[in-house]
User: Which sequence fits this backbone?
Protein backbone atom coordinates (compact mmCIF):
# COMPACT_ATOMS: atom_id res chain seq x y z
CA UNK A 1 0.00 0.00 0.00
CA UNK A 2 1.12 3.51 -0.73
CA UNK A 3 1.96 5.31 2.47
CA UNK A 4 1.11 8.76 1.08
CA UNK A 5 -2.40 7.82 0.02
CA UNK A 6 -4.96 10.62 -0.10
CA UNK A 7 -7.47 8.43 1.70
CA UNK A 8 -6.55 5.63 4.06
CA UNK A 9 -9.19 3.58 5.77
CA UNK A 10 -7.89 1.33 8.56
CA UNK A 11 -9.84 -1.32 10.45
CA UNK A 12 -13.21 0.42 10.10
CA UNK A 13 -16.28 -1.35 11.51
CA UNK A 14 -19.91 -0.42 11.88
CA UNK A 15 -22.90 -2.45 13.01
CA UNK A 16 -26.66 -1.83 12.96
CA UNK A 17 -28.28 -3.80 15.74
CA UNK A 18 -27.13 -7.37 15.25
CA UNK A 19 -25.93 -6.83 11.69
CA UNK A 20 -22.24 -6.21 11.17
CA UNK A 21 -22.58 -4.00 8.07
CA UNK A 22 -18.88 -3.17 7.78
CA UNK A 23 -16.27 -5.31 9.52
CA UNK A 24 -12.63 -4.36 9.88
CA UNK A 25 -12.26 -2.80 6.43
CA UNK A 26 -8.96 -1.31 5.34
CA UNK A 27 -7.87 0.17 2.01
CA UNK A 28 -5.95 3.11 0.64
CA UNK A 29 -6.41 5.40 -2.33
CA UNK A 30 -3.08 6.63 -3.67
CA UNK A 31 -2.52 10.06 -5.17
CA UNK A 32 -4.05 10.32 -8.63
CA UNK A 33 -5.73 6.95 -8.30
CA UNK A 34 -9.37 5.99 -8.61
CA UNK A 35 -10.80 3.04 -6.77
CA UNK A 36 -13.86 0.92 -7.54
CA UNK A 37 -15.87 -0.60 -4.72
CA UNK A 38 -17.74 -3.67 -5.93
CA UNK A 39 -19.52 -6.63 -4.43
CA UNK A 40 -22.95 -8.20 -4.20
CA UNK A 41 -25.97 -6.41 -2.74
CA UNK A 42 -25.78 -6.05 1.02
CA UNK A 43 -22.00 -6.25 1.06
CA UNK A 44 -21.72 -2.98 3.02
CA UNK A 45 -20.43 -0.79 0.17
CA UNK A 46 -22.87 2.05 0.67
CA UNK A 47 -22.44 1.93 4.43
CA UNK A 48 -18.69 2.19 3.93
CA UNK A 49 -19.16 5.18 1.64
CA UNK A 50 -21.40 6.85 4.23
CA UNK A 51 -18.76 6.21 6.89
CA UNK A 52 -16.11 7.89 4.75
CA UNK A 53 -18.45 10.81 3.93
CA UNK A 54 -19.33 11.40 7.57
CA UNK A 55 -23.02 10.56 7.19
CA UNK A 56 -22.40 7.73 9.65
CA UNK A 57 -19.82 7.38 12.41
CA UNK A 58 -17.80 4.15 12.57
CA UNK A 59 -17.84 2.01 15.72
CA UNK A 60 -14.09 1.67 15.46
CA UNK A 61 -11.23 2.24 13.07
CA UNK A 62 -9.58 5.22 11.49
CA UNK A 63 -10.30 7.15 8.29
CA UNK A 64 -7.60 9.58 7.22
CA UNK A 65 -7.99 12.07 4.40
CA UNK A 66 -4.73 13.79 3.41
CA UNK A 67 -3.41 12.69 6.79
CA UNK A 68 -6.30 14.21 8.76
CA UNK A 69 -8.48 11.95 10.89
CA UNK A 70 -12.07 12.31 9.71
CA UNK A 71 -13.77 9.28 11.28
CA UNK A 72 -16.93 10.47 13.04
CA UNK A 73 -16.61 14.04 11.74
CA UNK A 74 -19.98 15.53 10.75
CA UNK A 75 -20.72 15.28 7.04
CA UNK A 76 -20.64 19.02 6.31
CA UNK A 77 -17.13 19.23 7.71
CA UNK A 78 -16.05 16.25 5.66
CA UNK A 79 -17.60 17.94 2.62
CA UNK A 80 -15.78 21.13 3.51
CA UNK A 81 -12.47 19.25 3.32
CA UNK A 82 -13.20 18.41 -0.31
CA UNK A 83 -14.61 14.91 0.09
CA UNK A 84 -17.79 15.27 -1.93
CA UNK A 85 -20.26 12.43 -2.29
CA UNK A 86 -23.21 11.69 -4.49
CA UNK A 87 -26.10 9.51 -3.39
CA UNK A 88 -27.50 6.19 -4.53
CA UNK A 89 -30.93 7.80 -4.87
CA UNK A 90 -30.44 10.97 -6.88
CA UNK A 91 -30.46 13.91 -4.52
CA UNK A 92 -30.99 17.07 -6.49
CA UNK A 93 -32.77 20.04 -4.90
CA UNK A 94 -36.05 19.56 -6.82
CA UNK A 95 -37.51 23.05 -6.48
CA UNK A 96 -34.31 24.88 -7.27
CA UNK A 97 -33.41 25.39 -10.89
CA UNK A 98 -30.60 23.41 -12.46
CA UNK A 99 -28.30 26.42 -12.29
CA UNK A 100 -29.21 27.12 -8.67
CA UNK A 101 -28.44 23.52 -7.78
CA UNK A 102 -24.88 24.20 -8.87
CA UNK A 103 -24.64 27.65 -7.31
CA UNK A 104 -25.53 26.29 -3.87
CA UNK A 105 -22.49 24.03 -4.04
CA UNK A 106 -19.89 26.78 -4.33
CA UNK A 107 -17.82 26.57 -1.13
CA UNK A 108 -17.52 29.43 1.39
CA UNK A 109 -19.87 32.01 -0.09
CA UNK A 110 -19.87 35.52 1.34
CA UNK A 111 -23.61 35.81 0.77
CA UNK A 112 -24.10 32.92 3.17
CA UNK A 113 -22.41 34.81 5.99
CA UNK A 114 -24.28 37.19 8.27
CA UNK A 115 -22.16 40.21 7.35
CA UNK A 116 -22.44 39.40 3.67
CA UNK A 117 -26.20 39.33 3.88
CA UNK A 118 -26.39 42.57 5.83
CA UNK A 119 -24.12 44.40 3.38
CA UNK A 120 -26.22 43.05 0.52
CA UNK A 121 -25.32 42.52 -3.09
CA UNK A 122 -22.24 44.75 -3.02
CA UNK A 123 -20.60 42.18 -0.77
CA UNK A 124 -21.31 39.09 -2.83
CA UNK A 125 -22.34 40.00 -6.39
CA UNK A 126 -18.84 39.68 -7.89
CA UNK A 127 -18.35 36.31 -6.29
CA UNK A 128 -21.82 35.27 -7.47
CA UNK A 129 -21.07 36.30 -11.06
CA UNK A 130 -17.94 34.19 -11.13
CA UNK A 131 -19.86 31.29 -9.62
CA UNK A 132 -22.49 31.64 -12.36
CA UNK A 133 -19.74 31.50 -14.99
CA UNK A 134 -18.23 28.38 -13.47
CA UNK A 135 -21.65 26.77 -13.15
CA UNK A 136 -22.52 27.49 -16.78
CA UNK A 137 -19.22 26.03 -17.93
CA UNK A 138 -19.98 22.87 -15.99
CA UNK A 139 -23.51 22.70 -17.34
CA UNK A 140 -22.34 22.96 -20.92
CA UNK A 141 -19.78 20.26 -20.26
CA UNK A 142 -22.53 18.00 -18.94
CA UNK A 143 -24.83 19.04 -21.79
CA UNK A 144 -27.39 20.55 -19.46
CA UNK A 145 -27.06 24.15 -20.66
CA UNK A 146 -30.49 24.21 -22.26
CA UNK A 147 -32.05 23.18 -18.95
CA UNK A 148 -30.44 25.94 -16.90
CA UNK A 149 -33.75 27.43 -15.75
CA UNK A 150 -35.63 24.16 -15.44
CA UNK A 151 -36.56 22.90 -11.99
CA UNK A 152 -34.18 20.06 -11.14
CA UNK A 153 -37.12 17.91 -10.06
CA UNK A 154 -38.37 17.90 -13.65
CA UNK A 155 -35.24 16.34 -15.14
CA UNK A 156 -35.08 12.72 -16.26
CA UNK A 157 -33.32 10.19 -14.08
CA UNK A 158 -30.16 10.30 -16.17
CA UNK A 159 -30.09 14.09 -16.28
CA UNK A 160 -30.39 14.19 -12.50
CA UNK A 161 -27.33 11.95 -12.24
CA UNK A 162 -25.37 14.24 -14.52
CA UNK A 163 -26.56 17.24 -12.53
CA UNK A 164 -25.51 15.64 -9.27
CA UNK A 165 -22.01 15.00 -10.57
CA UNK A 166 -21.81 18.54 -11.97
CA UNK A 167 -22.94 19.87 -8.60
CA UNK A 168 -20.33 17.79 -6.83
CA UNK A 169 -17.64 19.25 -9.12
CA UNK A 170 -18.90 22.75 -8.32
CA UNK A 171 -18.01 22.05 -4.69
CA UNK A 172 -14.33 21.76 -5.75
CA UNK A 173 -13.81 18.15 -4.67
CA UNK A 174 -10.43 16.67 -3.86
CA UNK A 175 -11.96 13.22 -3.90
CA UNK A 176 -15.30 12.29 -5.46
CA UNK A 177 -17.36 9.60 -3.78
CA UNK A 178 -19.88 8.23 -6.27
CA UNK A 179 -22.55 5.82 -5.06
CA UNK A 180 -23.80 3.87 -8.10
CA UNK A 181 -23.87 6.77 -10.55
CA UNK A 182 -25.70 4.70 -13.18
CA UNK A 183 -28.33 3.12 -10.89
CA UNK A 184 -31.79 3.54 -12.38
CA UNK A 185 -30.53 5.37 -15.45
CA UNK A 186 -31.94 4.65 -18.89
CA UNK A 187 -29.41 2.65 -21.02
CA UNK A 188 -29.08 5.46 -23.59
CA UNK A 189 -28.02 7.81 -20.81
CA UNK A 190 -25.54 5.34 -19.29
CA UNK A 191 -23.24 5.89 -22.28
CA UNK A 192 -23.27 9.64 -21.65
CA UNK A 193 -22.49 9.15 -17.96
CA UNK A 194 -19.71 6.75 -18.78
CA UNK A 195 -18.13 9.25 -21.13
CA UNK A 196 -18.30 11.98 -18.51
CA UNK A 197 -16.71 9.74 -15.89
CA UNK A 198 -13.95 8.84 -18.32
CA UNK A 199 -13.27 12.52 -18.88
CA UNK A 200 -13.00 13.03 -15.13
CA UNK A 201 -10.49 10.19 -14.94
CA UNK A 202 -8.47 11.75 -17.77
CA UNK A 203 -8.35 15.01 -15.85
CA UNK A 204 -6.93 13.15 -12.88
CA UNK A 205 -9.88 13.62 -10.54
CA UNK A 206 -9.56 10.99 -7.80
CA UNK A 207 -12.74 8.93 -7.52
CA UNK A 208 -14.03 6.33 -5.11
CA UNK A 209 -16.93 4.68 -6.90
CA UNK A 210 -19.49 2.03 -6.08
CA UNK A 211 -20.79 0.63 -9.37
CA UNK A 212 -22.39 -2.58 -10.55
CA UNK A 213 -21.73 -1.87 -14.23
CA UNK A 214 -18.26 -3.40 -14.36
CA UNK A 215 -17.51 -1.91 -17.78
CA UNK A 216 -17.66 1.53 -16.22
CA UNK A 217 -15.53 0.44 -13.28
CA UNK A 218 -12.96 -0.82 -15.74
CA UNK A 219 -13.01 2.51 -17.59
CA UNK A 220 -12.65 4.71 -14.55
CA UNK A 221 -10.82 2.81 -11.83
CA UNK A 222 -7.26 1.52 -11.79
CA UNK A 223 -8.00 -0.75 -8.87
CA UNK A 224 -11.00 -2.34 -7.22
CA UNK A 225 -11.84 -3.49 -3.70
CA UNK A 226 -14.31 -6.37 -3.54
CA UNK A 227 -16.58 -6.54 -0.50
CA UNK A 228 -18.90 -9.29 0.71
CA UNK A 229 -20.79 -9.50 4.01
CA UNK A 230 -19.09 -6.39 5.33
CA UNK A 231 -15.53 -7.53 4.67
CA UNK A 232 -12.94 -6.90 2.00
CA UNK A 233 -12.43 -10.22 0.22
CA UNK A 234 -10.15 -9.13 -2.61
CA UNK A 235 -8.24 -6.16 -3.92
CA UNK A 236 -6.38 -5.44 -7.14
CA UNK A 237 -6.94 -4.90 -10.87
CA UNK A 238 -10.47 -5.67 -12.04
CA UNK A 239 -9.49 -8.46 -14.44
CA UNK A 240 -7.25 -10.14 -11.90
CA UNK A 241 -9.81 -9.89 -9.10
CA UNK A 242 -12.63 -11.24 -11.27
CA UNK A 243 -10.73 -14.44 -11.79
CA UNK A 244 -10.44 -15.19 -8.09
CA UNK A 245 -12.62 -18.09 -6.90
CA UNK A 246 -13.70 -16.32 -3.67
CA UNK A 247 -15.02 -13.38 -5.68
CA UNK A 248 -16.97 -15.64 -8.00
CA UNK A 249 -18.34 -17.46 -5.00
CA UNK A 250 -19.42 -14.22 -3.29
CA UNK A 251 -21.42 -13.17 -6.31
CA UNK A 252 -23.12 -16.56 -6.55
CA UNK A 253 -23.88 -16.89 -2.84
CA UNK B 1 -73.24 62.66 15.73
CA UNK B 2 -71.84 62.30 12.26
CA UNK B 3 -68.36 63.00 13.56
CA UNK B 4 -68.75 60.29 16.22
CA UNK B 5 -69.69 57.68 13.62
CA UNK B 6 -66.80 58.60 11.41
CA UNK B 7 -64.51 58.42 14.45
CA UNK B 8 -65.75 54.92 15.10
CA UNK B 9 -64.88 53.90 11.58
CA UNK B 10 -61.50 55.51 11.89
CA UNK B 11 -60.79 53.55 15.06
CA UNK B 12 -61.77 50.38 13.24
CA UNK B 13 -59.75 51.23 10.16
CA UNK B 14 -56.61 52.11 12.10
CA UNK B 15 -56.95 48.93 14.15
CA UNK B 16 -57.27 46.93 10.96
CA UNK B 17 -54.23 48.58 9.42
CA UNK B 18 -52.14 47.94 12.52
CA UNK B 19 -53.28 44.31 12.49
CA UNK B 20 -52.26 44.15 8.84
CA UNK B 21 -48.81 45.46 9.70
CA UNK B 22 -48.41 43.10 12.65
CA UNK B 23 -49.48 40.12 10.56
CA UNK B 24 -47.12 41.10 7.74
CA UNK B 25 -44.15 41.31 10.13
CA UNK B 26 -45.09 38.01 11.74
CA UNK B 27 -45.76 36.14 8.50
CA UNK B 28 -42.55 37.35 6.86
CA UNK B 29 -40.74 35.96 9.90
CA UNK B 30 -42.64 32.69 9.89
CA UNK B 31 -42.08 32.36 6.15
CA UNK B 32 -38.32 32.51 6.67
CA UNK B 33 -38.62 29.62 9.12
CA UNK B 34 -41.29 27.59 7.40
CA UNK B 35 -41.31 28.54 3.73
CA UNK B 36 -37.61 29.06 3.26
CA UNK B 37 -35.87 26.76 5.72
CA UNK B 38 -38.67 24.21 6.06
CA UNK B 39 -38.65 24.33 9.87
CA UNK B 40 -42.10 23.17 11.00
CA UNK B 41 -42.57 25.91 13.56
CA UNK B 42 -46.02 25.27 15.03
CA UNK B 43 -45.07 27.40 18.04
CA UNK B 44 -44.55 30.65 16.21
CA UNK B 45 -47.14 32.54 18.23
CA UNK B 46 -45.04 32.25 21.40
CA UNK B 47 -42.44 34.53 19.83
CA UNK B 48 -45.12 37.14 19.26
CA UNK B 49 -46.29 36.56 22.83
CA UNK B 50 -42.87 36.98 24.41
CA UNK B 51 -42.31 40.12 22.34
CA UNK B 52 -45.56 41.58 23.61
CA UNK B 53 -44.81 40.72 27.25
CA UNK B 54 -41.28 42.05 27.04
CA UNK B 55 -42.53 45.28 25.50
CA UNK B 56 -45.02 45.57 28.37
CA UNK B 57 -42.42 44.89 31.04
CA UNK B 58 -40.03 47.43 29.51
CA UNK B 59 -42.70 50.15 29.46
CA UNK B 60 -45.02 49.53 32.43
CA UNK B 61 -42.45 50.65 34.97
CA UNK B 62 -41.19 48.81 38.02
CA UNK B 63 -43.58 46.49 39.72
CA UNK B 64 -44.10 48.35 43.00
CA UNK B 65 -44.36 47.07 46.58
CA UNK B 66 -42.73 43.77 47.26
CA UNK B 67 -44.23 40.86 45.40
CA UNK B 68 -44.29 42.53 42.01
CA UNK B 69 -47.46 44.56 42.31
CA UNK B 70 -47.66 47.04 39.43
CA UNK B 71 -49.38 50.39 39.64
CA UNK B 72 -52.63 48.95 38.29
CA UNK B 73 -52.56 46.04 40.69
CA UNK B 74 -51.02 43.74 38.09
CA UNK B 75 -48.28 41.44 39.27
CA UNK B 76 -45.33 40.80 37.03
CA UNK B 77 -41.63 40.22 37.16
CA UNK B 78 -39.33 43.23 37.53
CA UNK B 79 -40.49 45.94 35.12
CA UNK B 80 -39.00 49.22 34.02
CA UNK B 81 -39.85 51.99 31.61
CA UNK B 82 -37.40 52.63 28.83
CA UNK B 83 -37.76 55.33 26.16
CA UNK B 84 -39.41 54.73 22.79
CA UNK B 85 -37.49 52.55 20.42
CA UNK B 86 -35.76 50.45 23.08
CA UNK B 87 -38.75 48.34 24.23
CA UNK B 88 -39.31 47.35 20.59
CA UNK B 89 -35.67 46.33 20.26
CA UNK B 90 -35.84 44.36 23.50
CA UNK B 91 -39.00 42.59 22.26
CA UNK B 92 -37.25 41.50 19.05
CA UNK B 93 -34.22 40.35 21.05
CA UNK B 94 -36.48 38.41 23.39
CA UNK B 95 -37.94 36.65 20.35
CA UNK B 96 -34.43 35.74 19.20
CA UNK B 97 -33.43 34.45 22.65
CA UNK B 98 -36.58 32.36 23.05
CA UNK B 99 -36.11 31.04 19.51
CA UNK B 100 -32.58 30.04 20.42
CA UNK B 101 -33.72 27.95 23.36
CA UNK B 102 -36.54 26.31 21.38
CA UNK B 103 -34.18 25.62 18.49
CA UNK B 104 -31.52 24.16 20.76
CA UNK B 105 -34.04 21.61 21.99
CA UNK B 106 -35.77 20.76 18.72
CA UNK B 107 -33.65 21.50 15.64
CA UNK B 108 -30.64 19.22 16.02
CA UNK B 109 -32.69 16.05 16.42
CA UNK B 110 -36.19 16.31 15.05
CA UNK B 111 -37.51 16.71 11.51
CA UNK B 112 -40.86 16.88 9.78
CA UNK B 113 -43.85 15.67 11.73
CA UNK B 114 -41.85 15.17 14.92
CA UNK B 115 -40.49 18.68 14.71
CA UNK B 116 -44.03 20.02 14.27
CA UNK B 117 -45.26 18.04 17.29
CA UNK B 118 -42.42 19.27 19.47
CA UNK B 119 -43.15 22.88 18.59
CA UNK B 120 -46.86 22.43 19.19
CA UNK B 121 -46.08 21.06 22.65
CA UNK B 122 -43.71 23.97 23.34
CA UNK B 123 -46.53 26.35 22.45
CA UNK B 124 -48.84 24.66 24.95
CA UNK B 125 -46.17 24.62 27.65
CA UNK B 126 -45.50 28.33 27.18
CA UNK B 127 -49.20 29.10 27.48
CA UNK B 128 -49.44 26.97 30.62
CA UNK B 129 -46.51 28.72 32.27
CA UNK B 130 -47.77 32.22 31.46
CA UNK B 131 -51.22 31.36 32.78
CA UNK B 132 -50.26 29.60 35.97
CA UNK B 133 -47.15 31.45 37.11
CA UNK B 134 -49.19 34.50 38.03
CA UNK B 135 -46.17 36.40 39.33
CA UNK B 136 -44.54 36.27 35.92
CA UNK B 137 -46.95 38.17 33.65
CA UNK B 138 -50.13 38.36 35.76
CA UNK B 139 -51.47 34.95 34.73
CA UNK B 140 -54.74 34.61 32.89
CA UNK B 141 -55.73 38.24 33.56
CA UNK B 142 -52.71 39.38 31.61
CA UNK B 143 -51.16 42.82 31.48
CA UNK B 144 -53.13 45.94 30.66
CA UNK B 145 -52.70 49.69 30.59
CA UNK B 146 -49.50 49.17 28.64
CA UNK B 147 -48.11 52.60 27.62
CA UNK B 148 -48.19 53.56 23.94
CA UNK B 149 -44.95 54.82 22.45
CA UNK B 150 -44.49 58.62 22.40
CA UNK B 151 -48.12 59.19 23.41
CA UNK B 152 -47.13 61.44 26.31
CA UNK B 153 -44.69 63.36 24.11
CA UNK B 154 -47.06 63.86 21.18
CA UNK B 155 -50.14 64.46 23.29
CA UNK B 156 -52.50 63.92 20.34
CA UNK B 157 -56.24 63.22 20.37
CA UNK B 158 -56.93 59.50 20.24
CA UNK B 159 -57.85 59.25 16.55
CA UNK B 160 -54.84 61.26 15.46
CA UNK B 161 -52.54 59.22 17.64
CA UNK B 162 -53.93 56.07 16.04
CA UNK B 163 -53.10 57.37 12.58
CA UNK B 164 -49.63 58.29 13.81
CA UNK B 165 -49.26 54.72 15.03
CA UNK B 166 -50.39 53.34 11.68
CA UNK B 167 -47.54 55.34 10.11
CA UNK B 168 -45.07 53.98 12.65
CA UNK B 169 -46.24 50.42 11.93
CA UNK B 170 -45.88 51.03 8.20
CA UNK B 171 -42.30 52.23 8.72
CA UNK B 172 -41.41 49.15 10.75
CA UNK B 173 -43.02 46.99 8.04
CA UNK B 174 -40.86 48.60 5.37
CA UNK B 175 -37.71 47.97 7.41
CA UNK B 176 -38.72 44.37 8.01
CA UNK B 177 -39.50 43.93 4.30
CA UNK B 178 -36.05 45.22 3.32
CA UNK B 179 -34.35 42.94 5.84
CA UNK B 180 -36.38 39.95 4.67
CA UNK B 181 -35.57 40.63 1.01
CA UNK B 182 -31.87 40.82 1.84
CA UNK B 183 -32.07 37.35 3.30
CA UNK B 184 -34.36 35.68 0.78
CA UNK B 185 -32.53 37.00 -2.30
CA UNK B 186 -29.03 36.28 -0.95
CA UNK B 187 -27.04 33.08 -1.42
CA UNK B 188 -28.12 32.30 2.16
CA UNK B 189 -31.74 32.28 0.97
CA UNK B 190 -30.76 29.83 -1.73
CA UNK B 191 -28.91 27.66 0.77
CA UNK B 192 -31.96 27.62 3.05
CA UNK B 193 -34.14 26.46 0.17
CA UNK B 194 -31.59 23.76 -0.64
CA UNK B 195 -31.60 22.59 2.98
CA UNK B 196 -35.39 22.52 2.86
CA UNK B 197 -35.34 20.44 -0.33
CA UNK B 198 -32.69 17.92 0.62
CA UNK B 199 -30.79 18.35 3.85
CA UNK B 200 -28.35 15.41 3.51
CA UNK B 201 -27.36 16.59 0.03
CA UNK B 202 -26.69 20.11 1.30
CA UNK B 203 -24.54 18.70 4.08
CA UNK B 204 -22.66 16.50 1.64
CA UNK B 205 -21.68 19.66 -0.26
CA UNK B 206 -20.02 20.97 2.89
CA UNK B 207 -22.89 23.21 4.02
CA UNK B 208 -23.65 23.44 7.73
CA UNK B 209 -27.38 22.79 7.47
CA UNK B 210 -27.99 22.99 11.22
CA UNK B 211 -26.43 26.43 11.39
CA UNK B 212 -28.48 27.60 8.41
CA UNK B 213 -31.73 26.31 9.91
CA UNK B 214 -30.82 27.87 13.24
CA UNK B 215 -30.16 31.22 11.57
CA UNK B 216 -33.52 31.17 9.82
CA UNK B 217 -35.24 30.22 13.03
CA UNK B 218 -33.66 33.02 15.06
CA UNK B 219 -34.54 35.64 12.44
CA UNK B 220 -38.12 34.37 12.40
CA UNK B 221 -38.24 34.44 16.21
CA UNK B 222 -36.96 38.01 16.26
CA UNK B 223 -39.57 39.17 13.77
CA UNK B 224 -42.22 37.34 15.78
CA UNK B 225 -41.12 39.22 18.91
CA UNK B 226 -41.18 42.54 17.07
CA UNK B 227 -44.67 41.85 15.75
CA UNK B 228 -45.86 41.22 19.31
CA UNK B 229 -44.48 44.55 20.49
CA UNK B 230 -46.08 46.45 17.60
CA UNK B 231 -49.39 44.79 18.38
CA UNK B 232 -49.41 45.24 22.14
CA UNK B 233 -48.24 48.84 22.02
CA UNK B 234 -51.41 49.60 20.09
CA UNK B 235 -54.01 47.47 21.85
CA UNK B 236 -52.33 48.04 25.28
CA UNK B 237 -53.40 44.71 26.77
CA UNK B 238 -52.04 41.18 26.49
CA UNK B 239 -53.11 37.89 28.03
CA UNK B 240 -52.65 34.17 27.32
CA UNK B 241 -56.02 34.12 25.54
CA UNK B 242 -54.51 36.46 22.90
CA UNK B 243 -51.99 33.88 21.80
CA UNK B 244 -53.52 30.43 21.85
CA UNK B 245 -51.66 27.81 19.83
CA UNK B 246 -54.34 28.07 17.13
CA UNK B 247 -53.16 31.58 16.23
CA UNK B 248 -50.05 30.03 14.66
CA UNK B 249 -52.29 28.18 12.24
CA UNK B 250 -53.91 31.41 11.11
CA UNK B 251 -50.45 32.56 10.03
CA UNK B 252 -49.65 29.22 8.45
CA UNK B 253 -52.91 29.43 6.50
CA UNK B 254 -51.91 32.88 5.26
CA UNK B 255 -48.55 31.57 4.05
CA UNK B 256 -49.99 28.46 2.43
CA UNK B 257 -52.61 30.47 0.56
CA UNK B 258 -50.32 33.32 -0.38
CA UNK B 259 -47.41 31.21 -1.50
CA UNK B 260 -44.78 29.27 0.32
CA UNK B 261 -41.33 30.79 0.23
CA UNK B 262 -42.43 33.90 -1.67
CA UNK B 263 -42.29 37.22 0.19
CA UNK B 264 -44.87 38.82 -2.08
CA UNK B 265 -47.09 35.79 -1.68
CA UNK B 266 -46.91 36.29 2.08
CA UNK B 267 -48.25 39.84 1.68
CA UNK B 268 -51.11 38.55 -0.46
CA UNK B 269 -51.83 35.79 2.03
CA UNK B 270 -51.93 38.21 4.96
CA UNK B 271 -54.29 40.53 3.09
CA UNK B 272 -56.61 37.67 2.18
CA UNK B 273 -56.60 35.47 5.26
CA UNK B 274 -56.46 37.22 8.63
CA UNK B 275 -57.51 40.61 7.28
CA UNK B 276 -60.13 40.19 4.56
CA UNK B 277 -61.42 36.73 5.37
CA UNK B 278 -61.10 37.14 9.13
CA UNK B 279 -62.90 40.48 9.14
CA UNK B 280 -65.67 39.35 6.81
CA UNK B 281 -66.57 36.66 9.30
CA UNK B 282 -66.95 39.39 11.91
CA UNK B 283 -69.91 40.77 9.93
CA UNK B 284 -71.80 37.47 9.93
CA UNK B 285 -75.16 37.74 11.71
CA UNK B 286 -75.02 36.86 15.40
CA UNK B 287 -76.47 33.40 15.81
CA UNK B 288 -76.54 31.19 18.87
CA UNK B 289 -73.57 31.32 21.21
CA UNK B 290 -71.22 34.26 20.84
CA UNK B 291 -68.17 32.00 20.57
CA UNK B 292 -69.63 30.53 17.39
CA UNK B 293 -68.04 33.14 15.13
CA UNK B 294 -64.54 32.52 16.44
CA UNK B 295 -64.93 28.77 16.11
CA UNK B 296 -66.32 29.13 12.58
CA UNK B 297 -63.34 31.33 11.71
CA UNK B 298 -60.84 28.67 12.77
CA UNK B 299 -62.75 25.95 10.97
CA UNK B 300 -62.81 28.06 7.83
CA UNK B 301 -59.04 28.60 8.07
CA UNK B 302 -58.51 24.86 8.38
CA UNK B 303 -60.73 24.19 5.39
CA UNK B 304 -58.92 26.82 3.32
CA UNK B 305 -55.54 25.28 4.18
CA UNK B 306 -56.73 21.82 3.17
CA UNK B 307 -58.24 23.01 -0.09
CA UNK B 308 -55.13 24.88 -1.07
CA UNK B 309 -52.77 22.04 -0.17
CA UNK B 310 -54.95 19.78 -2.24
CA UNK B 311 -55.59 21.91 -5.31
CA UNK B 312 -52.92 24.59 -5.36
CA UNK B 313 -50.08 23.64 -3.00
CA UNK B 314 -47.81 26.35 -4.38
CA UNK B 315 -50.25 29.07 -3.25
CA UNK B 316 -51.60 32.05 -5.15
CA UNK B 317 -48.18 33.56 -5.76
CA UNK B 318 -45.78 30.63 -6.13
CA UNK B 319 -42.13 30.75 -5.19
CA UNK B 320 -40.39 32.48 -8.06
CA UNK B 321 -38.03 30.68 -10.31
CA UNK B 322 -34.87 32.70 -10.19
CA UNK B 323 -33.25 33.27 -13.57
CA UNK B 324 -29.80 34.68 -13.93
CA UNK B 325 -28.83 37.17 -16.62
CA UNK B 326 -26.71 35.69 -19.35
CA UNK B 327 -23.04 36.40 -18.78
CA UNK B 328 -20.52 36.90 -21.57
CA UNK B 329 -19.95 34.12 -24.02
CA UNK B 330 -21.17 30.76 -22.90
CA UNK B 331 -18.64 28.25 -24.12
CA UNK B 332 -20.31 25.56 -26.19
CA UNK B 333 -18.54 22.37 -25.46
CA UNK B 334 -20.26 19.51 -27.23
CA UNK B 335 -17.30 17.19 -27.10
CA UNK B 336 -16.80 17.28 -23.35
CA UNK B 337 -13.29 18.58 -23.83
CA UNK B 338 -11.63 18.99 -20.45
CA UNK B 339 -11.88 22.56 -19.23
CA UNK B 340 -9.70 23.88 -16.49
CA UNK B 341 -12.21 23.20 -14.61
CA UNK B 342 -40.77 19.39 1.78
CA UNK B 343 -45.95 23.26 4.25
CA UNK B 344 -44.63 22.13 0.95
CA UNK B 345 -41.41 20.56 1.93
CA UNK B 346 -43.62 18.15 3.87
CA UNK B 347 -47.15 19.17 3.12
CA UNK B 348 -47.33 18.37 -0.57
CA UNK B 349 -46.15 15.44 -2.55
CA UNK B 350 -42.52 15.89 -3.51
CA UNK B 351 -43.05 15.06 -7.12
CA UNK B 352 -45.66 17.68 -7.96
CA UNK B 353 -43.94 20.83 -8.98
CA UNK B 354 -46.34 23.22 -10.57
Assistant:
Amino acid sequence: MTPDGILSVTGVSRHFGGVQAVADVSFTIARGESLGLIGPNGAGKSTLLSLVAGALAPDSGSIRFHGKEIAGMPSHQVGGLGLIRTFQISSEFPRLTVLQNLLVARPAQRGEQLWGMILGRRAWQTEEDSAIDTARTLLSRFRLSGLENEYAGKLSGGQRRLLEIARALMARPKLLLLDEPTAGVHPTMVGELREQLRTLRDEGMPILMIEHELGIVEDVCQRVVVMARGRVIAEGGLAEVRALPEVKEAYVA
Amino acid sequence: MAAAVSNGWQFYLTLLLVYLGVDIIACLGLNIQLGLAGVMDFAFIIFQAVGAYVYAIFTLGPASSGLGQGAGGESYLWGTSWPFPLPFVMAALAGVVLAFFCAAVVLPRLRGDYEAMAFLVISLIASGIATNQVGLVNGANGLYGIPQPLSSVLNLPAVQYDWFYVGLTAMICVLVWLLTRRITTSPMGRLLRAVRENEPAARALGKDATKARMFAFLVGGGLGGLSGAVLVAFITAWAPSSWGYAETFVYITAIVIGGFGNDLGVLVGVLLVPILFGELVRFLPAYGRSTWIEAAQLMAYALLTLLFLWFRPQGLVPERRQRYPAGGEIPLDPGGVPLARRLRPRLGSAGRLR
Notes: Chain B is about 65% helix and 0% strand.
